[in-house]
Predict the structure.
Amino acid sequence: MSHLAAPVQISKRCLPRLERCGGSLLLLLTIFGCQGPVQKVQFDHAAMGTRFRIVAYHRNDGQVEEAIQHAFEAIDDIEDICSDWKSDSEIRRLCRSGPHSEPVQVSRHLLEVLSRAVEVSRISDGAFDPTVGPLVRLWRRCQRAGRLPSSQELERARETVGVDSISINKIAGTVQLLRSGLEIDLGGIAKGYAVEVARKVMEAEGISSLLIDGGGDISFGKPPPHERSWKLEVQPTGNLQDSGNGMRLRINFTSEGAVATSGDATRFIEIEGKRYSHILDPVTGIGVPGPHAVTVFARDGATADALATAISVLSPDEAAIFIGRFPGSAALLFNSVDGRPLILGDFPGYPR
Ligand code: AMP
Ligand code: MG
């Protein structure tokens, strides 16, 4: 994915190797019930430039291992479709083949993730924009050179930015790119979409008590047996060194859903003493000024991921209106150095 570090090696295509976390025992927790023990199973898998981790509780560990394997296969498939690093990914091939005189048939996942990206783009008034690819590439080049882009460079890169150049027909399953040079970057949504798909795969195989973490994009089902919630630790301000508080939040999520955090905690550059994020404001074409961090709760992973990226660009007032358009979603904004978040919406489990 474009928003991630260089791709790490992934395990075999058809059969992701299940990697036990930290080499520890498969059986981490056993809760005895009347139909036999419920086991906590936890596996890692490298994909999309990060490590995915699945935690699941079930009585039948053979069944849960198989379901986890299928979930990791689904994540690999989504990487093959959405990756910006792989030149033969479906999205890169689609962009190369444009502009299209006729609509092009695409995979079910690409149709879904692109539709959601375009929808969030429209609702955010372009703060989230999957066509931001040329600006992202320019920003990365400048980042390496330690300088800001020139106005001519920005003008050129901005030429193809805008989702109106993408026409999607969900019923026919087609996409048509209406202008040449479009570079679609799904880095702000694809990992969230991947954890959501992986969760659905496991739930369809009868595993309902599970959590999938794609390096900060987290989707969770029912809490562990005999627990009322998932206790997650969110550390959005870990790198807001100015505040010096290294804040950690413990949040108890009782409802099923997804959480995503966006920000410049680990990915930022400093140019002439100013800090900029890897998330770009499509209007200015340059990184959002930092430090900044936002954690979003939403009903599904793709929405949480895209909203966290969008809100990173929006002002708090704009973000408050924007999040209201996504029922069930809420956000914690860590824009100030005192570390106390601004809460937008009804963030589940967050103490008021
Ligand atoms: P995230 O970490 O989910 O916030 O996604 C950040 C990644 O999304 C970046 O590395 C870019 O690949 C991409 N991106 C940057 N700015 C935007 C934007 N304004 N809208 C959509 N995607 C963006
Ligand atoms: Mg995102």
Q: What stands out?
A: The chain has eight helices and 18 strands. Helices lie at 61-82, 90-97, 108-123, 133-145, 151-158, 190-204, 301-313, 316-323.
